[in-house]
Amino acid sequence: MAAAPVWSVDPRTGKQREQVAVEATAQEVDAAVRAAHAARGALADRAVRAAFLRTAADRLEAARDPLVEAADAETALGPVRLTGELARTCYQLRAFADIVDEGAFIDVIIDHPDDTATPPVPDLRRFKVPLGVVAVYSASNFPFAFSVAGGDTASALGAGCPVVVKAHPDHPALSELVARVLRDAAAEHGVPAGVVGLVHGFEAGLELIRHPLVAAAGFTGSVRGGRALFDAAAARPAPIPFHGELGSLNPVLVTEAAAAERAEAIGAGLAGSMTLGVGQFCVKPGLVLAPTGAAGDRLVKSLTDAVGDTGPGVLLDHRMRDNFVAGVAERAGLEDVESPVAPGAGGEHTVSAGFLTVPAHRLAAEGAHDLLLEECFGPVTVVARYEDESEATAVLSRLPGNLSATVHLSEAEAAGEGRGAELLAALTPLAGRVLVNAWPTGVAVAPAQHHGGPYPATTSTSTSVGGTAIERWMRPVAYQNTPEALLPPELRDDNPLGLPRRFNGRLER
Amino acid sequence: MAAAPVWSVDPRTGKQREQVAVEATAQEVDAAVRAAHAARGALADRAVRAAFLRTAADRLEAARDPLVEAADAETALGPVRLTGELARTCYQLRAFADIVDEGAFIDVIIDHPDDTATPPVPDLRRFKVPLGVVAVYSASNFPFAFSVAGGDTASALGAGCPVVVKAHPDHPALSELVARVLRDAAAEHGVPAGVVGLVHGFEAGLELIRHPLVAAAGFTGSVRGGRALFDAAAARPAPIPFHGELGSLNPVLVTEAAAAERAEAIGAGLAGSMTLGVGQFCVKPGLVLAPTGAAGDRLVKSLTDAVGDTGPGVLLDHRMRDNFVAGVAERAGLEDVESPVAPGAGGEHTVSAGFLTVPAHRLAAEGAHDLLLEECFGPVTVVARYEDESEATAVLSRLPGNLSATVHLSEAEAAGEGRGAELLAALTPLAGRVLVNAWPTGVAVAPAQHHGGPYPATTSTSTSVGGTAIERWMRPVAYQNTPEALLPPELRDDNPLGLPRRFNGRLER
Questions:
Q1: What angle do CA A320, A324, A325 make, to 5 degrees?
Q2: Taking CB atoms and an 8 Å cutoff, what residues of chain A touch B435?
Q3: What is the ipTM of this complex?
Q4: Is A109 in contact with B474 (Cβ distance < 8 A)?
Q5: Quick one: where's region Disordered (chains A, B) (predicted)?
Q6: pTM of structure
Q7: In whole angstroms, what is the distance from residue B480 CA to residue A409 CA?
């Protein structure tokens, strides 16, 4: 059987641009994993990892114009957005380099012997070591920031783990280009090219997750695809951690008082957030609880005006476009659902943004309207109008896990009057990030960021964005009774590397 | 159908002592989980949690004599060991109370807005919140320290998570007693009794792991039982973290120089470690790589003498006894395997400790002898005699994950001469704890402890003993753009609770 070709496709026309590669065979996946595994030693030195990450950022920036052009040709996300996303990606690589330099993530804990403990404590010194080869499953919607050189790769390399990336079929040519840049950066620091493997093909992705030398995986994508890989990771003879970001509705609650105070601003802000990147963000607000009555009507009117002004957009591929068109049609056809701005097909290759409304009580109990509580990828949101706040919280309590949950409060509520704190507490179980008077799109790269949440937002308690993402690729090891002469420098009493640590119980920074 | 009775059994006679309870029905499991879930709010205050844990320790100590008596009647572990184990359990409860007081595990990270970042960083404040109800699966071999009031329960309560414990069938009466002590301690601090649920029965254990309100699980036990529960946790509509400690061979490598230097001491130390608690420790050294030749012969001789002097012992139950007898017979029957002290059946209810020897090359490649690389619960170990060190490391490289890996070095090797550091590096991928010139039995409760390791040692990268065990039951949440008035005190700039944290990138302690 001939190897299946991998085509680069123009989403603006649906036409094949060029054949980029062929799908990887089981043998090729095995070779990529073995090459990555062999590169572990070259990443053992933290200084090398940090320098490699910084060089990768420098080289990606140097190649900006051809990379953005290649990305736009395959994703239609436009040069402005893609230039910004590349800048974010480089910022992220450098942020992880800084984290590697600081070394807090190694989590050094040293206990001297203590005969007063029950039972007595011997000399124990613990730190974290890299897990091994990490499989990275790229997302379609962020061809730079959640793809070959994205957060999973940056954090894994920072942790000392080589990666094998399963390229997303929506931007295979860009994936090859970026992988080449990363390998050139590696070579500059004496790290073998195998440190960043790249494979194409659905079957190759399954081979990868099942490979005995793959020690962990990161994934950003759909619930269906992510769950299949999660299941495969769990079914291995030796299961491995699978950090998947699968899907999220990102509910927004607008209080009666907030709507009364600034209905127009909220409506316009919502329109901007839900149509950003043609609605292809994992943190797109997909369900908005807004009050019935005049203030809520003003919000809907403002949303109607702003979304109505949005031109047609191109989705990342034609399958997504077909799913969007079918998904919004099915939702719009439910009883009591209205479409103030009808979402759906635009031209032959485009879609139109829109939104639906529904009385919130329709969502308060199991039924056909539960479809509205499932993520619909693309520029659409559902505005559920509630009669009173208990109706709104009843809907919230039915939601599965989310990446984000947002509340819009009035000035007085934000200042502590009324139920602001209570609502915040009610949103916390729903999501990994809770926002007040803001919109969830735009996920900052920062130490305190948490881009994760209860299932299906993520399959673990970890984050895929922000400083703590590096923790996913490490495991602790404790050394007992080990002579000074044999200790790695990280675990020596005199702390030659100047690492933050816990020393005989006390935190030292 | 009548509810299945739960019997307390005397392992010294195999006779039923009394009926303790009946196996929990699905409805009873549901009620226990709901009661635990309802108790979450009472655990929200860290001060209450710490006080509750300390009172639990006080009350367990106050009830020491009847508890030890009850434990001995069901486990035959003897009052000395059990008194020590109870002391350890109380120490552990108080250690977690101290950890709760300090609050580092909440992992506060605060970022003020930063417009110079790419993209700009908004106000972000992250900490960790309790996951929810934790299912705890008790172990047979530590009726106090890894059971109802053991490390999983102590760390979960410390994290703010109520527990429902699945009692181990080898000590159901003790489980009921200990649960009552914990509930009395809870009541003293206004925490509802449901905060510590207890259910009996195999089916109840499966119901528990599948319950939608159960948010995570801790397990200590066999590979078969643990894997079944892990699989059930992964197969849930919303999978949950399953922290299971399943099985471990705990390899020991004795270098030629170490054997030459102190063969007798090593043989005697090994005998003590492998027969401790009638060989029923999860960190029992189950495979020892010792050199051929005179020094190794002296080691075997010393082991022969010491193990030969060990009297018969009672295992935790008769099923274990039967498995031990069959397991050692099967292993002893393999080609080239010798039994200098034959392990096996003792009297009608007891077993005799022993050990087997085999040429290491028999273990270097797949074959019938792989049985010797599987854990055999009870007082037996396998001494594999190697011709040269490469033969020894070839065997090590074939091992699955372990809780511990040990190397015995000569004085010169420990001082940095020869291959000590190299051997330490070779053992690190095998285990979560690496020991030098020590024995793995005896797992100290300490900040730097790591009691976990690559699968099947554990099903996650976490530990079930030591301070960081509390991390298993938490998930991060980030608050974005949240007004000061609505922030939990943990996340306020002025740090009213005095928590260690990362503030605008800097570690503060």
A1: 120
A2: 479-482
A3: 0.97
A4: no
A5: 486-509
A6: 0.97
A7: 14
